[in-house]
Amino acid sequence: MSNGQELFESAEYIQWTQDYDGASNAQLDNAQLDDDNQRREEDMVDRSKAFEGEGGKWLKASDLEGKGVAKVKIAAVLDEVMEDFTTKKPVDKVCLMFEGREKGLVLNKTNGDALISEYGGDDAAWVGKEVGLEYYYYEDFGKAGIVLSLVDREFNDDIPF
Q1: Domain boundaries along the sequence of the chain
Q2: Rounded CA separation 7/132 (Å)
Protein backbone atom coordinates (compact mmCIF):
# COMPACT_ATOMS: atom_id res chain seq x y z
CA MET A 1 0.00 0.00 0.00
CA SER A 2 1.42 3.44 -0.91
CA ASN A 3 1.65 6.35 1.55
CA GLY A 4 -1.16 8.20 -0.25
CA GLN A 5 -3.42 5.18 0.03
CA GLU A 6 -2.69 4.88 3.77
CA LEU A 7 -3.72 8.52 4.26
CA PHE A 8 -7.08 8.01 2.57
CA GLU A 9 -7.76 4.85 4.60
CA SER A 10 -6.74 6.37 7.96
CA ALA A 11 -9.35 6.66 10.71
CA GLU A 12 -8.84 10.46 10.89
CA TYR A 13 -9.53 10.92 7.18
CA ILE A 14 -12.58 8.68 7.31
CA GLN A 15 -13.95 10.64 10.32
CA TRP A 16 -13.27 13.94 8.52
CA THR A 17 -15.14 12.81 5.41
CA GLN A 18 -18.07 11.62 7.54
CA ASP A 19 -18.20 14.94 9.44
CA TYR A 20 -18.20 17.02 6.27
CA ASP A 21 -20.08 14.65 3.96
CA GLY A 22 -22.46 16.68 1.90
CA ALA A 23 -21.29 20.07 3.14
CA SER A 24 -20.80 22.73 0.48
CA ASN A 25 -17.51 24.59 0.06
CA ALA A 26 -19.15 27.73 1.47
CA GLN A 27 -20.25 25.82 4.59
CA LEU A 28 -16.74 24.43 5.04
CA ASP A 29 -15.20 27.90 4.60
CA ASN A 30 -17.62 29.38 7.16
CA ALA A 31 -16.86 26.58 9.63
CA GLN A 32 -13.12 27.28 9.26
CA LEU A 33 -13.68 31.04 9.73
CA ASP A 34 -15.72 30.37 12.88
CA ASP A 35 -12.92 28.17 14.25
CA ASP A 36 -10.27 30.81 13.40
CA ASN A 37 -12.31 33.64 14.98
CA GLN A 38 -12.91 31.61 18.14
CA ARG A 39 -9.16 30.92 18.46
CA ARG A 40 -8.39 34.63 17.93
CA GLU A 41 -10.90 35.64 20.62
CA GLU A 42 -9.45 33.10 23.08
CA ASP A 43 -5.87 34.29 22.40
CA MET A 44 -6.75 37.99 22.38
CA VAL A 45 -5.18 40.16 25.06
CA ASP A 46 -6.91 43.45 25.84
CA ARG A 47 -4.14 46.04 25.73
CA SER A 48 -6.43 49.08 25.99
CA LYS A 49 -5.75 49.42 29.73
CA ALA A 50 -2.00 49.69 29.13
CA PHE A 51 -2.44 52.99 27.29
CA GLU A 52 -5.17 54.67 29.32
CA GLY A 53 -4.63 57.74 31.44
CA GLU A 54 -1.35 58.94 32.84
CA GLY A 55 -0.55 55.83 34.89
CA GLY A 56 2.00 53.14 34.27
CA LYS A 57 5.67 52.60 34.98
CA TRP A 58 7.00 53.60 31.54
CA LEU A 59 6.97 56.90 29.68
CA LYS A 60 4.79 57.23 26.62
CA ALA A 61 5.35 59.85 23.94
CA SER A 62 2.06 61.50 24.98
CA ASP A 63 3.55 62.20 28.43
CA LEU A 64 5.93 64.67 26.75
CA GLU A 65 3.88 65.99 23.84
CA GLY A 66 3.97 69.78 23.60
CA LYS A 67 6.09 70.19 26.73
CA GLY A 68 9.58 70.81 25.35
CA VAL A 69 12.66 68.85 26.36
CA ALA A 70 12.63 67.29 29.83
CA LYS A 71 16.01 67.29 31.58
CA VAL A 72 16.53 64.11 33.62
CA LYS A 73 19.37 62.38 35.44
CA ILE A 74 19.78 58.65 34.94
CA ALA A 75 19.41 56.93 38.33
CA ALA A 76 19.47 53.28 37.26
CA VAL A 77 19.68 50.99 34.27
CA LEU A 78 17.39 47.97 34.47
CA ASP A 79 16.89 44.79 32.49
CA GLU A 80 13.18 44.09 32.12
CA VAL A 81 11.45 41.15 30.46
CA MET A 82 8.49 42.32 28.38
CA GLU A 83 6.20 40.69 25.86
CA ASP A 84 7.03 41.45 22.24
CA PHE A 85 3.87 42.84 20.62
CA THR A 86 4.50 40.99 17.37
CA THR A 87 5.73 37.56 18.45
CA LYS A 88 4.06 37.50 21.90
CA LYS A 89 7.30 36.04 23.25
CA PRO A 90 9.26 37.45 26.18
CA VAL A 91 12.14 39.73 25.21
CA ASP A 92 14.80 41.46 27.30
CA LYS A 93 14.63 45.26 27.24
CA VAL A 94 17.05 47.82 28.67
CA CYS A 95 15.25 50.51 30.64
CA LEU A 96 16.29 53.73 32.36
CA MET A 97 14.95 55.09 35.63
CA PHE A 98 15.44 58.76 36.50
CA GLU A 99 16.12 60.64 39.73
CA GLY A 100 12.96 62.21 41.17
CA ARG A 101 10.71 60.74 38.47
CA GLU A 102 8.06 58.05 38.73
CA LYS A 103 8.30 56.77 35.16
CA GLY A 104 11.21 55.23 33.33
CA LEU A 105 12.08 54.86 29.67
CA VAL A 106 12.22 51.61 27.72
CA LEU A 107 15.18 52.13 25.40
CA ASN A 108 14.75 51.59 21.71
CA LYS A 109 17.74 50.79 19.50
CA THR A 110 18.32 54.42 18.47
CA ASN A 111 18.33 55.76 22.03
CA GLY A 112 20.45 52.84 23.26
CA ASP A 113 22.98 53.37 20.46
CA ALA A 114 23.19 57.09 21.36
CA LEU A 115 24.06 56.26 24.99
CA ILE A 116 26.63 53.65 23.96
CA SER A 117 28.20 56.04 21.44
CA GLU A 118 28.53 58.82 24.02
CA TYR A 119 29.25 56.95 27.27
CA GLY A 120 30.35 53.44 26.23
CA GLY A 121 28.84 49.99 26.58
CA ASP A 122 29.21 49.75 30.38
CA ASP A 123 25.82 50.96 31.56
CA ALA A 124 27.24 51.79 35.00
CA ALA A 125 28.85 54.79 33.27
CA TRP A 126 25.40 56.03 32.23
CA VAL A 127 24.19 56.45 35.83
CA GLY A 128 24.38 60.09 36.93
CA LYS A 129 24.40 61.46 33.37
CA GLU A 130 21.89 64.12 32.44
CA VAL A 131 19.96 63.65 29.23
CA GLY A 132 17.01 65.27 27.52
CA LEU A 133 13.77 63.53 26.61
CA GLU A 134 11.31 64.94 24.13
CA TYR A 135 8.29 64.03 22.07
CA TYR A 136 8.89 63.41 18.38
CA TYR A 137 6.48 62.37 15.64
CA TYR A 138 8.05 59.93 13.16
CA GLU A 139 6.28 60.64 9.86
CA ASP A 140 7.92 57.64 8.15
CA PHE A 141 6.37 55.29 10.73
CA GLY A 142 3.17 57.24 11.34
CA LYS A 143 3.61 57.26 15.11
CA ALA A 144 5.09 59.25 17.94
CA GLY A 145 8.09 58.34 20.04
CA ILE A 146 10.55 59.70 22.57
CA VAL A 147 13.92 61.07 21.53
CA LEU A 148 16.75 60.95 24.05
CA SER A 149 19.20 63.85 23.54
CA LEU A 150 22.76 63.95 24.77
CA VAL A 151 23.72 67.40 23.52
CA ASP A 152 23.42 70.57 25.56
CA ARG A 153 20.03 72.09 24.89
CA GLU A 154 17.53 74.22 26.67
CA PHE A 155 15.81 71.80 29.01
CA ASN A 156 12.57 72.13 30.94
CA ASP A 157 13.10 70.69 34.44
CA ASP A 158 9.44 71.17 35.37
CA ILE A 159 7.80 68.55 33.13
CA PRO A 160 6.02 66.11 35.49
CA PHE A 161 5.96 62.36 34.88
Answers
A1: 3-43, 55-149
A2: 65
